[in-house]
Backbone:
């Protein structure tokens, strides 16, 4: 390898490691975002579901996830042999102890780390539809089974050389069987519109329907416990998304820069779109709406981050924010309890981003001079979105049915009414009713130097009283 190539590979490796860390940050950020939206009696449970997914998926990915997603022994183009690289054997170092080089010119272990973080956040997204009513043990088992049967196969089909990615077996070849110029029109999913957002949000919708509504839904649901945490979580998700989309260029180059820029302007435009929708529909913009709008824009640009211009990203983001704000209200219209608006934010915006990119894709979009190619791309993008929905929906329903019959999904009535945090985890996020400390000051000492303290056995109904003197 030439010195220039070595330097480029080192820079790309550094960028991918940073991107992997940024994407990993998104899971704790999602825990903040979801936890703040949940009632205070279930905040910790909601956050722990994200951390639980991180624990389960990290282990599973090393055991068979990488092999199923990116192995060479493909099974019908749907998934790869889970035992080919089981435990990452023959994936990290060669017989001489040297790190195996991946397709992008840097160590393959960096790709493993990067792709693992995508599997983690994809699984954690689903939990937002299940707030305040699901057994934690069942959720942990579901996380491992779902990522194995849904996420890994989709990653293989779209990114790992499976039936939705390889030119000879692409949907475009099957549908049209022709080429324009030198290349077949193939599906576009730059960073995970189908693999991550559509699949996870479809699973969330299926679980919301099968697990059932909270007993207080829709009129008795408590308000979000911590809106500042929601906004902080949204900000950290935005920060992490630069690694999510920018890292998907797999190099520190102009494409990564374009994806970075498109990510920011799409999120900004979507926030404005959501706030405008709230203002016109409900008479006022909210912090929750602004935070949700940012996420909607990030979801919308994910499949298109490297395939559209910044103007196209603004278009996708603004429309995605408006559509997601509208989609968040579908649960009230149809009566399903999607607790934290996963369907509106991730499914509606994800579908829009995956299909809508065909309108503004650079040079090939319907509105950017693509002509017949733009029409073909629109059909292809619609098909891959539907394939992801059907695949995830059917398998998720089967998983949910089996777990419902064996482990059970719902916590008891008392745990749901009084709070999962207390009944399941034996702790609370906000100690608002805990013991109050009062200082007793002896007369002989200055009032600024307390000698001791007395803990009351029951909390006071009012604020902490002033210090008393004997």
Residues:
């Amino acid at each position: 390898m030439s010195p220039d190539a070595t330097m480029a590979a080192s820079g790309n490796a550094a960028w991918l490691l940073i991107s992997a860390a940024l994407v990993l940050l998104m899971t704790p950020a999602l825990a903040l975002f979801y936890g703040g939206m949940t009632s205070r009696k279930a905040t910790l449970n909601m956050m722990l579901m994200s951390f639980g997914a991180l624990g389960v998926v990290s282990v599973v990915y090393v055991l068979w996830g990488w092999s199923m997603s990116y192995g060479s022994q493909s099974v019908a183009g749907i998934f790869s042999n889970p035992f080919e690289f089981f435990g990452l054997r023959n994936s990290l170092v060669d017989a001489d102890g040297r790190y195996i080089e991946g397709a992008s010119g840097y160590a393959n272990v960096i790709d493993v780390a990067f792709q693992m973080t995508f599997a983690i956040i994809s699984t954690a997204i689903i939990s937002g539809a299940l707030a305040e009513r699901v057994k934690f043990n069942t959720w942990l088992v579901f996380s491992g089974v779902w990522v194995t049967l849904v996420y890994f196969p989709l990653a293989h089909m779209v990114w790992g050389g499976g039936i939705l990615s390889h030119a000879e077996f692409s949907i475009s070849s099957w549908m049209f069987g022709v080429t324009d110029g030198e290349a077949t029109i193939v599906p576009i999913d730059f960073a995970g519109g189908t693999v991550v957002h559509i699949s996870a949000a479809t699973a969330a919708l299926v679980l919301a329907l099968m697990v059932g509504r909270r007993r207080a839904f829709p009129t008795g649901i408590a308000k979000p416990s911590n809106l500042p945490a929601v906004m902080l979580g949204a900000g950290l998700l935005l920060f992490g998304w630069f690694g999510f989309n920018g890292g998907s260029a797999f190099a520190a180059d102009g494409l990564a820069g374009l994806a970075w820029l498109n990510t920011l302007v799409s999120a900004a435009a979507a926030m404005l779109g959501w706030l405008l929708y709230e203002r016109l529909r409900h008479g006022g913009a909210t912090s929750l709406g602004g935070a949700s709008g940012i996420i909607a824009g990030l979801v919308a640009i994910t499949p298109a981050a490297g395939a559209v211009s910044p103007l196209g990203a603004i278009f996708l983001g603004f429309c995605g924010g408006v559509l997601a704000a509208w989609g968040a209200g579908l649960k009230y219209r149809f009566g399903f309890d999607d607790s934290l608006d996963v369907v509106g934010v991730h499914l509606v915006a994800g579908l829009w981003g995956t299909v809508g990119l065909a309108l503004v894709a650079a040079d090939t979009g319907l509105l950017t001079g693509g002509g017949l190619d733009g029409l073909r791309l629109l059909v292809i993008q619609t098909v891959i979105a539907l394939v992801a929905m059907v695949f995830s929906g059917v398998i998720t329903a089967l998983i949910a049915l089996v777990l419902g019959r064996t482990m059970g999904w719902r916590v008891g009535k008392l745990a749901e009414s009084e709070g999962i945090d207390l009944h399941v985890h034996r702790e609370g996020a906000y100690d608002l009713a805990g013991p109050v400390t009062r200082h007793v000051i002896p007369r002989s000492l200055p009032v600024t130097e307390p000698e001791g303290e007395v803990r009351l056995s029951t909390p006071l109904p009012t604020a902490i009283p002033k210090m008393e003197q004997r």
